[in-house]
Amino acid sequence: MKRKINTVTKHPLLGRVSCQGKRPSAERGRLTLWRGLGILLLFFLLATYNASAQDEPEYRMEIGGGLGLAAYEGDFNGNPLKGMQPMAAVLAKYKMNPRMAWSSQLGLGKLKGSSKDVETWYPVLNDNPVDFSTSVTSFTVRYEYNFWPFGTGKEYLGAQPLTPFIAIGAGLAFAGKPELKGLPSPESPQEPLYPAHQPESAVAFLVPIGLGVKYKVADRLNLTAEWMMHFTGSDKLDGVKDPYGIKSSGMFKNTDCYSTLQLSLTYDIWAKCKTCHNDKE
């Protein structure tokens, strides 16, 4: 039986170095086994981390309400933040995924305006300032897109508790009969210059466009701050149509609008099935 001989050499930089023969095959097998176990342990830890990061269920819907301010913008006001009045809303959202959602909202608010401080000159109205106030009820359905996946990070890996978003939609606005003060009567001698108007309620097609920020207050509680501009297809929200007496053409040409600044609180409902193979279940 040959004996394994160890040799010692002197390296010019490292000094004395012991040179041994190759390791036995049994020892190499044990090292391979330990390496394999280490890799399996690493995969196990990663899988455990992913599972713990998504241990909360995803929810399909949000329901809640909001409070805010509404501002009229039309013939008697060109500033979307001037003359804001209180408004309230109830809403529901269907979340397609952490980035996209469909939102439906029923809102109720007031609109006020005056021709006293407008820079535009209107026949008769500059000498006879008109003040109006009315209520407006709207129903809208809109699409929301989050800049980042929205969530706690426990239900969806990579979700963020704070994200900006943009929204666009469509709906209807119902404006009540405006209260007008200062409008010339039909018997006014200035009637040929300015057609007198009888205030009446109005129904208008509505297109809301805006942006906002969402914040995850708790696992199932969401806070949203948003500003939306509501473009309508009617010029009767203020009770005065075509102040120049010239008819306009086009869906949104010379029509009344209003903006809303709203803070809403919603609660997550309808958890997704975690064990279902079909995401729609």
Structure description:
By secondary structure, the chain is mainly β. It folds into two domains: about 25-55; about 60-270, Porin, CATH 2.40.160.20. It has one helix at about 25-55, and strands spanning about 5-10, 15-20, 60-75, 85-95, 100-115, 130-145, 160-175, 180, 200-220, 220-230, 255-270. The strands form two sheets. An eight-stranded antiparallel beta barrel has the order 3-4-5-6-7-9-10-11. The protein has a two-stranded antiparallel ribbon with strand order 1-2. The radius of gyration is 34 Å and the shape is rod-shaped.
List the helices and strands and how they pair.
Blueprint (H helix, E strand, L loop, with lengths): L6 E5 L3 E5 L5 H29 L5 E15 L11 E13 L2 E15 L16 E16 L15 E14 L3 E3 L20 E17 L2 E12 L24 E15 L10
Antiparallel strand pairs: 1-2, 3-4, 3-11, 4-5, 5-6, 6-7, 6-8, 7-9, 9-10, 10-11
Essential attributes:
about 280 residues, mainly beta, Porin, 2 domains, eight-stranded antiparallel beta barrel, two-stranded antiparallel ribbon, 1 helix, 11 strands, about 45% strand
- Record the strand order, biggest sheet: 3-4-5-6-7-9-10-11
Helix/strand class: mainly beta
Largest sheet: 8 strands, antiparallel, barrel
**Number of helices in the DSSP assignment:** 1
Q: Secondary-structure element sequence?
A: EEHEEEEEEEEE
Number of DSSP strands? Answer: 11
Question: CATH top level of the largest domain?
Answer: Mainly Beta
